[in-house]
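Re: your question about Transcriptional regulator, TetR family

S., sorry for the slow reply, the queue was backed up all week. Below is exactly what I fed in.
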Amino acid sequence: MTRKQEIIDTAKTLFRERGYKSVSMRDLAKVIDFKAASLYNHISSKEEILAEIVLDVARYFTHEMNIIKSLNVDAKTQLEGVIKHHVDLTINNPEAIAILNNDWMHLEGKHLEDFKMMRDTYENDLRSIITQGIEHKEIAFQNIDIILFSLLSTLRTLHLWYRKRSDLSENDLKKDITDILLKGILVKS
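Result:
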């Protein structure tokens, strides 16, 4: 692991625990056992660390969405893929998900523009999948924005809940979340 990656990994933990605004470069240096000035040999600023974390997650979601869109499958299968990728990242990198959700607004300039563009594109792609599902009668006709909000709000906050539920296996979580989000909780007659 490079020093830069060590700094980023340590920052992920501190940002998740305390919040981006509450962590100083001195705090970060102290945890890593560096002199604060030495950090700047590896990273230019705290905002650069935040950008690295947030944009890495945004690029992951963009990449995964591009794969899903390239598949010649129905909307249900595409939505299952979206949910699976969110669950995977929640389990494998919960700090990054928490930082993305809670601290993206502290990005500046080009970093903020790039993030907003990727987020908006992702949400529009997801909206298109939902619309396609409604048009092909795979998804019951409902307000598309409410469906989108319901999916994303559950998936974006999953890291908060799952953190306390290590008794669930990754496969059970993927299956149950997918079933509940896509099929609902009512028994169909």
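The first helix runs from residue 3 to 18. Residues 86 and 155 are 6 Å apart (CA to CA).

Happy to talk it through on Thursday.
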